[in-house]
């Protein structure tokens, strides 16, 4: 993904035959973040493939929206009525994003450098954003805009408002809350994330996103709960916990090696 280009797209695309939904959803996410139109054919194929898991098809639909080319509007409009609710809602959002881009410039200054499924709302008042966020009669695209506006504000009050969104009816919406909590890495979100991960009747897509967010926050309570769910019955949750803990171990080893190198350098040069 970091290198980009047709060769990177080709290699990433080969992974969609894998058995891990977690891996395939990450591949689709990466293709969307590249924003390279050459990825449109494979993403379109994945979205249309009923043999792919819903979370993989959802991510392919979101990636098509991230690339933002009008030529996929017809396909996205078709799958806006998909029987899988998460796929349908994703395609509805992708249509809205592309239509928004046709009338507005892509916004710059995203502090997280991600291509998001909706631009942040212009509103800065947390209470007003919270009201939009939690009002399920408001169009989903506008509620997503409230999510990203609150994320960009980044305060504890904004985090607590977002946390209330984990009780909303749409699993897709709840999973997006988990995703932005992972970006924000704010300790105030930990109790809500743990609660969501522990809900065995929660959508696996939501639980997996909350597990990844806990891994990115990486405080002791996060690590403990991730270890508890290493044998979860849902493969995508189990693998998310494994990846989160493996990343923590890798990062800690890198920090240790860096610190150890500094100590040795100081001994040799002082």
TrEMBL record:
The cofactors required by this protein are:
Fe(2+)
Functional pathway: Protein modification; eIF5A hypusination
Q: Which UniProt keywords apply?
A: Hypusine biosynthesis, Iron, Metal-binding, Monooxygenase, Oxidoreductase, Repeat
Keyword Iron attached? yes
Q: Which reaction does it catalyse?
A: [eIF5A protein]-deoxyhypusine + AH2 + O2 = [eIF5A protein]-hypusine + A + H2O
Query: According to the UniProt record, what class of enzyme is this?
Result: oxidoreductase
Name one matching Pfam family: HEAT_2
| SMART domains on file | EZ_HEAT (SM00567)
Report whether Transport shows up as a keyword of the record: no
Q: What is its EC number?
A: 1.14.99.29
A single GO molecular function, which one? deoxyhypusine monooxygenase activity
What does the UniProt function comment say about this protein? Catalyzes the hydroxylation of the N(6)-(4-aminobutyl)-L-lysine intermediate produced by deoxyhypusine synthase/DHPS on a critical lysine of the eukaryotic translation initiation factor 5A/eIF-5A. This is the second step of the post-translational modification of that lysine into an unusual amino acid residue named hypusine. Hypusination is unique to mature eIF-5A factor and is essential for its function.
Q: Which HAMAP family match?
A: Deoxyhypusine_hydroxylase
Q: Which PANTHER family match?
A: DEOXYHYPUSINE HYDROXYLASE, PBS LYASE HEAT-LIKE PROTEIN
Q: What name does the UniProt record give this protein?
A: deoxyhypusine monooxygenase
Source taxonomy: Eukaryota, Metazoa, Chordata, Craniata, Vertebrata
